[in-house]
Design a protein that fits this description.
Structural class: alpha/beta
CATH class of the largest domain: Alpha Beta
Number of strands: 22
Helix content: 25-40%
Number of domains: 3
Number of helices: 15
Oligomer: single chain
Shape: globular
Largest sheet: 8 strands, mixed
CATH topology of the largest domain: FAD/NAD(P)-binding domain
CATH architecture of the largest domain: 3-Layer(bba) Sandwich
Length: 465
Amino acid sequence: MSDLDVDVVVIGAGPVGENVADRAHQQGLSAAIVEDRLVGGECSYYACIPSKALLRPVDLLAATQRVPGVEAGPIDVAKVLERRDGFANPDDSGQADWLSGAGITLLRGHGRLAGERAVEVTHHDGTTTSVAARYVVVATGSVPAFPPVDGLDTVNAWTNQEATQVKEIPESLLILGGGVVGVEMATAYRRLGAQVTLVQHGDRLLPTTEPEAGRRVQAALEADGVDVRLSTSMTAVRRDGDDVVAALGDGSEVRGAELLVAAGRRPATSDLGVDTVGLEPGTHLEVDDATTVLGDWLYAVGDASTGAQLTHMGKYQARICGDVIVARSRGQELGGRYSHHATTAEHTAVPQVIFTDPQVASVGHTEASAGRAGLSVRAVSYEIGNVAGAALQADGYDGVAMLVVDTDRGVIVGATFVGQDVADMVHAATIAVVGEVPLERLWHAVPSFPTMSEVWLRLLETYGL
């Protein structure tokens, strides 16, 4: 006998899991959600929200310095951290109350699959709850990956959790990894007063973006005083007094008061009981366009799945997952909503914003990834600073916009914007990519003057329309 019988049980109460449970419950299904840590998940307390709270003040100060006649005093670090706490104080009572008010049962503890349609929850006091469910959803997210560096387990290295919840800014910081977390935290910490050294094993920062994006972010970090070390790795680390000393593959050493490991993430599926249903622990759970893993009962969304590892894409998956479960519970066909456009959104039209200065906003293919996908493409670029809206936005505006065009179909399959305040420009590109809007039609989408969106017109002109 089970202690609890529900229609849907979701393991993981981050934004993605919450969306699945709420979507299903709003359409008439009973739902429970299991969380071992904080309701609201990594994004709310240790990633998206607190990192942007740290970055916004330093970004705003830099923007004011590019407009003569506007004065801004030095950063008040204590107030920045206080404001961060207002957004991301690790107290999840409000989130838990929301679940209760929505009619969703919250089970605090570690959830594991216990065979088909069964979940066992081990609570913090050692008691257990057995849950029987028609549908089980894995939304456990991901955890930091640690590369094989000698001594790494002895120096109390930071992950994004410590970096975003810091109580005071250290005098210096070593960062291992030049991806999104690495470059964002390098931006924030340098401008909040720390000396920063960033070590990246590859030959450029942000290796999954257009090369020009990584180049411009590197130039900006170095202009701020960040010591960027490319094409080398940390081979060993040790504590020397209050500092961490890292030996690099090129024979040099670097030191800092703290070490942030930002070397990627892995799915949190190692201790999830997936082996009880024939799946491999510690791997991404393979899903189809309906987020299904096994039969009609097991689903995965967010970082634990093979979908794009971004909160907004996880929440998109969650909406699909909730609707699919409801449709199947009613014996309904899924319809075309989860076919072509879901495939496009999940695999070839993923938007992302990197909140460095300059910002990097992108969607879809890079020129390189389009080539690997076998597409015949042409890429065009235009300096954003050459449009009137950008010149008004900031003196000496430095930024670039790039489009990747499928020449066979005459549609955009990728776009990248690099520059101050470009974050909100990417959604127009996302609509163009998902909607497969022909360039001939985009020609009639007239941008407002004087805004930075005028760069769309210049890109189409550069392409030859």
